[in-house]
Design goal:
This protein is an alpha+beta fold. It has 1 helix and 4 strands. The chain has a domain of 40 residues.
Length: 63
């Protein structure tokens, strides 16, 4: 079982804010290539971290 990313929360952690939206089931996210994707509340935390980091190296596939 994967760890949930915590989208939809209102808590803040130091300088990091939990992703939040009024859309049911997730958020709309603007990606670096200019596309907009719906990111599910159930996205794997590792995938979400990879989407938010430019220093991982590998390209993130479909999510």
């Amino acid at each position: 079982m994967h760890q949930k990313a915590g989208i939809g929360g209102i808590q803040t952690y130091a300088l990091n804010t939990v992703l939040n939206s009024f859309h049911t089931g997730g958020i709309h996210a603007l990606l670096a290539d200019g596309s907009v994707r719906f990111v599910s509340d159930n996205i794997d935390i590792g995938t979400l971290r990879s989407l938010g980091s430019a220093h991982d190296g590998p390209v993130v596939g479909e999510f």
